[in-house]
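Bumping my old thread because nobody answered last time. Still need a sequence for this structure:
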């Protein structure tokens, strides 16, 4: 039962990634995976109490480990969802977010529209991620475009468009477990002797991104800064 619980939870990601099941089925798998894991632990407890002589330490350890994974993954995602704003469109510029251009056709059939989600989302972002703001650099636009491309490549993103004259780089990041495709656009603007850099990351699917887009922007900023200081 613990193995069944483990498979119900862990296999949902790859099955969804390769279009074998729908997203709604993933949550059903999580639900029954949790129920099965709890049942497995209850049966294990009963075996320890009433039939200890039939139990080995190895089998008990394996059952506990598999059940822990089946319980831990969905519950950790649930807790994460409760701790972050239920949004999926994050931008360092909430007044004039960078726009997707080359990526727009790739999102034609995506449940989440390409347009920015609006002031309601911006208000939730300000409360949940107040640290995400426009960045300022002294490097030239060309240097920053090259650094942005390098950072995106280092992070494993698939580049979709680079326009040095406009200072725009677009890319797609695909998550490992579920294969969710989230799109990123970086905009570089000349302001006097400085360059302003804004990043926007938006999920194609799902109401809440569980904080993934904000984490992606934080990771990108860290990678970009590490390239620029070399």
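Sorry it took so long. Here it is:
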């Amino acid at each position: 039962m613990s193995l069944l619980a483990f498979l119900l939870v862990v296999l949902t990601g790859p099955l969804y990634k390769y279009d074998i099941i729908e997203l709604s089925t993933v949550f059903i798998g999580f639900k029954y995976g949790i129920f099965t894991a709890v049942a497995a632990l209850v049966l294990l407890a009963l075996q320890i109490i009433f039939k200890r002589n039939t139990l080995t330490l190895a089998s008990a350890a394996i059952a506990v480990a598999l059940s822990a994974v089946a319980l831990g993954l969905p519950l950790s995602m649930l807790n994460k969802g409760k701790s972050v704003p239920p949004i999926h469109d994050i931008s360092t510029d909430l007044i004039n977010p960078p726009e997707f251009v080359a990526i727009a056709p790739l999102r034609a059939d995506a449940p989440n529209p390409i347009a920015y989600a609006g002031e309601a989302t911006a208000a939730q972002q300000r409360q949940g991620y107040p640290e995400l703001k426009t960045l300022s650099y002294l490097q030239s636009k060309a240097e920053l475009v090259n650094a942005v491309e390098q950072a995106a490549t280092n992070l494993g993103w698939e580049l979709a468009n680079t326009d040095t004259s406009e200072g725009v780089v677009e890319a797609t990041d695909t998550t490992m477990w579920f294969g969710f495709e989230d799109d990123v656009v970086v905009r570089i603007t000349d302001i006097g002797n400085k360059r302003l850099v804004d990043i926007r990351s938006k999920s194609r699917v799902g109401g809440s991104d569980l904080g993934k887009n904000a984490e992606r922007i934080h990771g990108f900023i860290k990678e970009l800064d590490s390239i620029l200081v070399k």
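The longest helix spans residues 23-50. Let me know if any region looks off to you.
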